[in-house]
Design a protein that fits this description.
254 residues; alpha/beta; eight-stranded mixed beta sheet; 7 helices
């Protein structure tokens, strides 16, 4: 969807959609037990190498694993005539974007890796938490650290900075393709985030990736038990034919 002109205060909101495609309970349950490390391995086997968002670290170390659809927001470099405090009241603003976010989504914000201007502060994060947004993911930074932590909204970012977003960025729209941490993110792509960071699963591959990831987790769990029992790694990880046969026999007994 093309971006409206940020200067136009009379322009309609860019996207009035309030519901993202539902995630099946089975997919959510499966991904709740799959690490992002496993997902990157599965995606690598499917030919996808660029799926891990660089620079996005958990703001709080005890944040839970989060799974949700991407709701994208995009900033471009700061332009003095557009990036002003007055722009916060325009129809095309981060405030308006937050009101379009559906419950359960993950807000994925392309901040171009800028680390000297906080894209969101405590009030905006509080409103996101109130609307049921699952998490905030950005390659930028946030501001008002104590207040943001107090909202309880899980945040993955590059850290914090006191200056407001308009000190270094211009907000231009939402629900359009963005680049976040070097990864191309399209609206409604599936995002999984944990302590290792955020991984994107393209919409078309979700079912295949989830099935393969669950099997990969089961295999690696079995291999870990074999390692703990004293077996050497060659032929075990990755498994050779004999090891794979032992694993398949073990699965049949479960």
């Amino acid at each position: 969807m093309p971006s409206p002109d940020p200067e136009r205060e009379d322009e309609p909101l860019m996207d009035e959609k309030t519901d993202l495609p539902a995630l099946g309970a089975g997919i959510l349950a499966a991904l709740a037990g799959v690490t992002t490390a496993t997902l990157t391995t599965v995606l690598l086997k499917k030919g996808l190498r660029n799926c891990w968002v660089r620079g996005a670290r958990p703001l709080r170390p005890d944040q839970p694993r989060v799974v949700g659809r991407a709701f994208t927001l995009r900033f471009v470099p700061m332009r003095e005539d557009l990036a002003t405090p007055a722009s916060w009241g325009h129809p095309i603003s981060t405030r308006a974007a937050i009101e379009a976010m559906p419950a359960g989504c993950i807000a994925v914000v392309d901040a171009m890796g800028v680390t000297d201007a906080g894209i969101f502060g405590d009030i905006l994060c509080a409103r996101m938490a109130q609307r049921g947004v699952a998490a905030l993911l950005t390659d930028g930074v946030v501001r008002d650290l104590a207040g943001v932590l107090g909202t309880g909204l899980p945040v993955w970012c590059q850290g914090t900075a006191a200056p407001a977003s308009v000190a270094g960025l211009t907000f231009v729209g939402w629900q359009q393709p963005v680049g976040c941490g070097g990864v191309a993110v399209f609206p409604d792509d599936l995002i999984v985030i944990d302590g290792d960071g955020a991984v994107l699963i393209p919409q078309a591959l979700v079912q295949d990736v989830v099935e393969a990831a669950v099997e990969q987790e089961r295999l690696e769990g079995w291999i870990m038990r074999e390692v703990e029992s004293g077996l050497p790694l060659p032929g075990l990880y990755p498994p050779n034919e004999a090891t794979q046969a032992r694993y398949e026999a073990w699965k049949k007994q479960q």
